[in-house]
Amino acid sequence: MALVKCKECGIEISSSAKACPHCGKAQTKKSTKIIGGLFIIMVAMIVIGSLDSPPSSPDVDRVTSPVPSSGNPAHEQLMRASENSRNITFAAMMMASGEHCGAVTRTFFQGFAGEDAIWNITCTDGRSWGVTVKGDTEGSTRILDCAVLSAVGGGECFTKF
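Below the sequence we write its predicted structure tokens.
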């Protein structure tokens, strides 16, 4: 078991560590920061998903009131999407990041950290994740396992702040 430097804080950690015990940064081989192309995929999934069923369908939870401007266009698109579309979009984000969780079964908007929107998701494999949707023009994301977030004292998922 070799030691490697954390991609975030630079401290030496085990090469088999999934996350840094010091800062909580996921230590995956593939980058958890998804930009550009994923934003286009996300917008396409939301548009396609918004056409998937009529608003009266019981399995679709559409936002009927206007979404206030947050300065974060990717987040605003997620808020306008049906629950089914959000699930599909987040599942695509997870797959693109290298974290294959199956389907997303639950999404929860936790709140804002500056212009960044913090979402929580649960996957069919039972794991939960915190997804930061950055307020930049690309809609970059950062994904962190909720168990790791809690272990490093970074807060609890599925709790509004």
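Strands lie at 3-5, 12-14, 104-113, 116-123, 128-133, 141-145.
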